[in-house]
Each structure stands twice: as structure tokens, then as C-alpha cells.
Design goal:
The protein is mostly helical. The protein contains two helices and no strands. It has a domain at 16-90. It is rod-shaped and about 145 Å long.
């Protein structure tokens, strides 16, 4: 017999499609969390390494400042008049007794 209704097949089992969609979104969320966690750990580790390097540079700066201070003290000692007189005696130099200056006037303008 002929019927006026069209024969259509209905899908009864639609749960598999929903489960597949749920699993795909779950895997996507897990992957995103894993990637963001990796980026977070990388940034924390990078910050720790930079902090360590900054502390090392600060220690080096302090050591160089101390060395600079010691060198300034040594420079002052070496430039002192006492040290110069002592060095001149060690080199068998004699003190000047009569100093004479020569004045010369010439074509060069002097102030």
C-alpha cells in the first residue's frame, strides 16, 4: 500500500556524538592548561635566574668599589710630599740650595 507519509530513518543513538564532542573539548582544555602551566614555570625559572645574576653583579660591584677605595688611598700615599722626598733620597738626589729663574721676553704673547 501506498502511504502519504515519507519513510524516514531516525537516529536513536545520539549519545556517541555528544561524548566525542565532550572528549575533544576536554582534551583541548587539558592541553591549554598544560601549555599555560609550562609557560608559567618557564617565566618563574627565568625570573629566578635573572635574580641570581643581579645578586652576583651587585656583589661584584661592591668588591670593585672596595678595590677602588683602596687604590685611591694608595694613590694618595704615593702622591704625598713625604713619599716624594723619601723617593728622592733613595735616588741620591740633592736638595736645591740656590734657585735662579730666567725670564725671557720674546715675540710670543704671554699672559
Amino acid at each position: 500500500m501506498y502511504s502519504w507519509q515519507q519513510n524516514t530513518k531516525r537516529k536513536i543513538n545520539t549519545k556517541k556524538k555528544n561524548i566525542k564532542g565532550f572528549i575533544n573539548s576536554g582534551v583541548l582544555i587539558f592541553t591549554l592548561l598544560l601549555i599555560s602551566g609550562g609557560i608559567y614555570l618557564y617565566s618563574i625559572n627565568n625570573s629566578a635566574v635573572k635574580g641570581y645574576q643581579v645578586r652576583q653583579v651587585e656583589k661584584e660591584i661592591q668588591e670593585l668599589k672596595k678595590e677602588n677605595d683602596n687604590l685611591k688611598i694608595k694613590e694618595a700615599e704615593l702622591k704625598s710630599l713625604y713619599r716624594i722626598e723619601e723617593s728622592s733620597k733613595n735616588l741620591n738626589m740633592e736638595d736645591l740650595k740656590n734657585v735662579s729663574y730666567i725670564e725671557q721676553t720674546g715675540p710670543v704673547a704671554m699672559k
